[in-house]
Amino acid sequence: MTPLNIPEWQSLDRHYSDLKFVSMREQFALDSKRFERFSITSGDLLLDYSKNRITQETMDKLIQLAEAVEIQDWVEKMFKGDAINITEGRAVLHTALRNRSNNPVMVDGKDVMPAVNAVLEKMKRFCDQVHNGSWLGFSGKKITDIVNIGIGGSDLGPAMICDALEPYGIDGMKVHFVSNVDGTDLSTTIEHLNPETTLFVVASKTFTTQETITNAQSARNWFLKEGKPDDVAKHFVAVSTNAKEVAKFGIDTDNMFEIWDWVGGRYSLWSAIGLPIALYTGMDVFERLLDGGHQMDNHFRTQPLPENIPVVMGMLGVWYINFFNSQTQAIVPYDHSLARFPNHMQQLDMESNGKFINRTGARINYKTGPVIWGTPGTNGQHAYFQLIHQGTQLIPVDFVLPVNSHYPDCDHQSILLANGLAQAEALMKGKTAEEVRAELVNEGYEGSALEALLPHKVFPGNRPSNVLLFPKLTPEMLGQLVALYEHKVFVQGVVWNINSFDQWGVELGKQLAKAIVPDLKDGAEISAHDSSTTQLIKLIRELRQ
Ligand code: G6Q
């Protein structure tokens, strides 16, 4: 079923024609309660969505559309473990990984919670041993450096969380992430490390991913320059679903932390894929992260749709993508430690909703997932914000604002926050020609010089943004934020009638390169390719040193 035929979608289409010229500035002037009307809190987290191109009627219609696609039924299907990942025949249960209520969650008639809890318990035992020194390196020294080797979902989420939770890092423990098969990544990481005190976590759900296995083999070779083959067990652990491949690689399966096929890669930081987080911060902090995720799950599952943060954010996204024709969504955290947050969100959203086929296998004739991008504020202001203010595209922005810093000695927070708020305000208000004229006159401009400069300094405004505001970036808050975006993406996938939980585009990449690797060998017969690829292969062979 295409959403274009749903009466609520068509009603939004008509509403869009009426609303597209309505100015937010005027709406704010007319309604002193606009902030109260269009903001939601969940615990310590506030979503202010008042600076959007909406009226109450818009929100009513968006919520009616969410109801028409039976969003609440889909939410229940996901939480209850139905196989909603239809192309892979799998349940989608990242919510079970952070199910702190411990209520049973059934997959194929079996409760998954005992297995989830057992792995959490194993992670805890292992982290405690590493931290208290009962797990030592081969020469009897304490582990000081964790190197996670993984890629995509087995890298981005844990790397982002470790950055963000740097204030919670255990003294003396450092964490590194190696993902790229470009040897530079591994080489520049290990060149400063001591194999006696380094622990590698090889994180791969399938344990067949070329980049990860290649990096892990090279890491083992590096380790074996000092350690003996028997010492590998003390320095390499694995996170995977694939015990056979783990054993084949040479890692003792006692040192393997299990994940399950119902955990999607980009949703896996809550599983044992989060082991580097727990090793870096301690298991108690990792559990606080899970608590935050669970809190958002409860919010998502129980709050009425108009008061439901992921639903409201998801539907606002649909409003811009499908009616205003927006192509991209910026996520701009005003927190330097969230530098990798937009990257993780990019994978989460673009891999989940970058689809052109609907759940019934038919081609889609409407827009789905946007391009997600962003970097921390204020840096982005000195780079790409020009285009957001005065470019020709409508780019909705999420401003993520923690009120308090973890580093109060360096008290820059007022300046940081003022910048975030000022950007959101300026995007909404813009600057009219009259205002620019008054400013220029004030500055002494007149005549043709004034007229020539004036249009360049006009800001159209009416550019939408959300503000997510919270007291401090604690593990619980970070858990809430990540889970919020996961659910937002899910809401949009339901509206677009797509399977947000497969990733055939990623699988394609995994196959393609394997076919070309042998062609790059000197003297090998080059297999059939287009002429461009064949010539490039030949050139690479010639240029290779
Ligand atoms: C995520 C994707 C993808 C995956 C990586 C790594 O949802 O499936 O990014 O996480 O390709 O896969 P492995 O964990 O199997 O190595």
TrEMBL record:
Main location: cytoplasm
Gene3D superfamilies found in the cross-reference section: 1.10.1390.10, Glucose-6-phosphate isomerase like protein, domain 1 (3.40.50.10490)
Keyword Lyase assigned: no
GO BP terms: gluconeogenesis; glucose 6-phosphate metabolic process; glycolytic process
Catalytic activity: alpha-D-glucose 6-phosphate = beta-D-fructose 6-phosphate
GO terms under cellular component: cytosol
Pathway recorded for this protein: Carbohydrate degradation; glycolysis; D-glyceraldehyde 3-phosphate and glycerone phosphate from D-glucose: step 2/4; Carbohydrate biosynthesis; gluconeogenesis
InterPro entries in the record: G6P_Isomerase, G6P_Isomerase_C, Phosphoglucose_isomerase_CS, SIS_dom_sf, SIS_PGI_1, SIS_PGI_2
Record-annotated active site: 351, 382, 510
Keywords: Cytoplasm, Gluconeogenesis, Glycolysis, Isomerase
Purpose: Catalyzes the reversible isomerization of glucose-6-phosphate to fructose-6-phosphate.
Name of the protein in its database record: Glucose-6-phosphate isomerase
Phylogenetic placement of the source organism: Bacteria, Pseudomonadati, Pseudomonadota, Gammaproteobacteria, Thiotrichales
Gene: pgi
